Structures are given as structure tokens and as C-alpha cells.
Model the fold of this input.
Amino acid sequence: MKELESIKILIAQIDKHLAILDEIFDELGKAIDDDVRLLGRTNRTALMVASIIEGYYTCAETVFFRISQYFENNLVEGRWHKDLLERMTLEVEAMRPQVVSDSVGEDLAELMRFRHFKRYYHGFAYDWERLDSLIARLKRVHGPLRRDLQSFRGFLSKI
Done:
């Protein structure tokens, strides 16, 4: 019974994070279409966009961490962010399918690298070309990430 309860909790966490990812994705679109258009490509609007991108990856990583806690729960300190994402691209035989496709993992790896940079960069002069590239990557990955997580959710519901 405890196993079923844990699976239901994990499914609920995936659902919650899918909704948050959608919300963050929508806010990014509004920020670009409304705020950046109105205020221009300034350091302040760049900081806003960078924060939204950071939040998106952090939300995805949080759901991956919950999945890892349920299935593996043995991440090594120091490299755990990178290891966690890499594990989500692996099928673990007789345990669980791949959580995200390799291509989704590659796009998310770039967002993860930016998130790491942003956390340790305390300036305000962001490169808009780099942000444009990250925005395009986030827009490209959102649909496939949703599909991958929903597919994994389907796997969980059959356990």
C-alpha cells in the first residue's frame, strides 16, 4: 500500500510541475511580447528574462529530483545537477524507462549551464544574443519535455 501511495504522490508532483512549467513558459512569452517590447532590450529586461529561464530549468530539475528520489536516490555531491539530468535520459532496465529523450536532455543541459552561470554571475549586463538563443531553445524544448513527462507519468500510472 505504501508503494502505491508513493507512486500517486510522484504522479501528483509531476502534474504540479507540468502546470508550473506551463505557467513559466507563458510568462516568458508575455515578458518578451509585452515587457521587452515596451521597455526595450535593457539590462533590466534581460535580467527578467534570465530569471524566467533560470526558473524554468529549476522547475524541471525539481521534478527530475523527485523521480530520482523514488527510483535511485544516490546522487553524488558536487556533480549531482549534471548527473541528475544525464540519468533522466537513461532507461534503467527492469526499473524505469527513459524520462526524457536525448534531444530534450541536450536542450535542458544548455539551460542548466545557463542557470549555473546566472546563479554565480552577479552583474546585470546580459548578452541579448545569448538570451535569444536560450529563449529559442526553451521554446523548442517545452513541448517535447511536456510529452516526455506525460509519457513517464503514464508509465507510473500502470505500475
Summary: Residues 17 and 62 are 8 Å apart (CA to CA). The chain has a mean pLDDT of 94. The chain is about 80% helix and 0% strand. Residues 2-39 form the longest helix (38 residues).
